[in-house]
Amino acid sequence: MYPTIKDKRQIIMTPEESYDIIVIGAGPAGSTAALYAADLGASVLLIDKKKDIGTPIQCGGFLPCYEELEELLPGAQLPSTLEDIPSSCIYTSTRIHRFIAPNLDPKEFEVPANVLDRSRFDKHLARKAAGAGAELMIGTRADSIEGDVVSVRGVHGEFNIKAKVIIGADGPTSMAAKTAGLIDRSDDMGKAVALEYELAGVDIDREAVEMFFGRDYAPGGYAWIISQGGDTANIGVGIRQPLCEKGVSTQDYLHRFMYEHPRAAPMFKGARITAIISGIVPVGGAPPETVKGNIVICGDAAGQLIATNGGGIPTAMVGGKVAGETAAEVVSGKCKLSEYENRWRAQIGLEIKTSVYVKKLMDGLMRSDPMMSTAMKMINPEQMKALQRGRLPDPVKKMLKSLNAGLG
Ligand SMILES: Cc1cc2nc3c(=O)[nH]c(=O)nc-3n(C[C@H](O)[C@H](O)[C@H](O)COP(=O)(O)OP(=O)(O)OC[C@H]3O[C@@H](n4cnc5c(N)ncnc54)[C@H](O)[C@@H]3O)c2cc1C
User: What is the pLDDT of residues 154-166, one digit of tens each?
Assistant: First the structure.
């Protein structure tokens, strides 16, 4: 509905009483779902609790180029918005992916990639959804779902809005997924805690994205440096609490990396922090079910993420596209909502599942720095690239298993 000013405290719009589809969350998954559902003619309401879509960001912005994504997710129908990314949403491009073992040995392979300005990219995607006809309600939190009614509250006021299908694209702590009883994130090994700083005044390799391993800096995960162009970068750590030293916080690990890592710290001398970013990365894989009644979940809400590297932008968008298209078909009587489950798993299910398996094998090795260094020495760059993509070449599987067995 067109914006109306009902009350000076309620600023912008009054929603309709009901929609075909309500999408909760205007991140990459939700905006993509809304875009594709609206394109197919469904009436769509896209809601986000943020007052400014994309802000604050919770991401490093690393996104392999379209051709790489086609190889990374060979079964996926990639959304067009992964191909046509406006240059205003891209900080810089990188060419190399470099891994640094705990013993500081580097290994690298080519991965042409863009580093996104996620705030701009998220807003761009939301604008695309709005352009396709979706209504957008920002500054509005979805508090609860009961049957076909979503209760929302925010800058526009409080409303109970009906929908035939509800898409939960509300991130790793998804209310929609919890309401439908679809996720149980009580397992701390299934979620990584990530903290990153945006820095100005760094002296880094701008061509490369670097990932550093080692228990002292990133237990159960890795530390990273991602160039944002010029002398700016985002550096961060993704760790898992059960593998951390007692009394050492995520920030302590990031500070160790920034100030003490023998190879990384010299690059940050004199750097200044321009932003602090944190969030949860659901690395435990997808739950057994992602559809219940009239609710489907996608993106981080559904664990649609490559566990080995924590990259979730492309998989969230693929999941969102499938959710939006399926929901629109359900509304026009062409299929059942349960189709969503088969469709998204056929496109990206294998990569997500394998990446979780690889991550579990790596978890064993990550408990020992010498073992991790040995493994990284034995794996050649091509195999490493495969692992990074969540694949597991047979020789590597054998080797990782025997190293793990050696650890007892
Ligand atoms: C620190 C960090 C760094 C990362 N770096 C990378 C990277 O470099 N590359 C990469 O590919 N991935 C990265 N990821 C992962 C990536 O950010 C996510 O996988 C991706 O954002 C998932 O998209 P999404 O749309 O599912 O969820 P989100 O992007 O989390 O979007 C969910 C949206 O839902 C909204 N929302 C939540 N609850 C409600 C509610 N109740 N009502 C209304 N709105 C709600 C939120 O405001 C948010 O806008 C990183 C993650 C973190 C935490």
Answer: 999 999 999 999 9
